[in-house]
Amino acid sequence: MTRKRPQRVANAIRREIGTMIQEELKDPRIAFTTITRVEITPDLRYAKVYYTVLGNEKETRSTEVAFNNAKGFIKNAIGDRLKLRLTPEIVFKIDKSQEYTNKIEKLFDRLHKEKETKEDA
């Protein structure tokens, strides 16, 4: 098995779940969700699906519950659409990388402002 196949399968899973969110899943808790990336094991048995939610912490937790409830439907749909011999077990994870990036940017902004005020003084 080449190393490119897991990446191709991960990209296909990301696209399919994104399409399902937009067109098929009617759960309002999943409405403002973006699939950011999918990490899949080399043997294609397990896939971590990372997502972000436009909303507060309560809405993020609600989305997590909705994804866990829809996990079986999503797995079956992926197996049917991608024609995989073995459909990977899917684990949904909240992608906190954007949160982390925003936090770092705020720290840099604060440091920059502090530096400017010290130079002005």
Brief sketch in words of this structure:
The chain is of the alpha+beta class and 121 residues long. The protein has three helices and three strands, in the order αββαβα.
Question: How would you describe what is shown here?
Answer:
This protein has a 3-stranded mixed β-sheet with strand order 1-2-3, with helices on one face. Helix content is 58%, strand content 18%. It has 3 helices and 3 strands. Helix 1 packs across helix 2 (57-82). It is α+β, with helices and mostly antiparallel strands. The mean pLDDT is 88.
Dominant shape = elongated
N- and C-termini, Cα separation = 63 Å
Percent range for helical residues? 55-70%
Mean pLDDT figure: 88
Order of strands across the widest beta sheet? 1-2-3
Uncertain runs: none
Order of helices and strands: HEEHEH
Topology record:
Layout: H1 4-23, E1 33-40, E2 46-53, H2 57-82, E3 89-94, H3 97-120
Parallel strand pairs: 2-3
Antiparallel strand pairs: 1-2
What descriptors fit this protein?
121 residues, 3-stranded mixed beta sheet, 58% helix
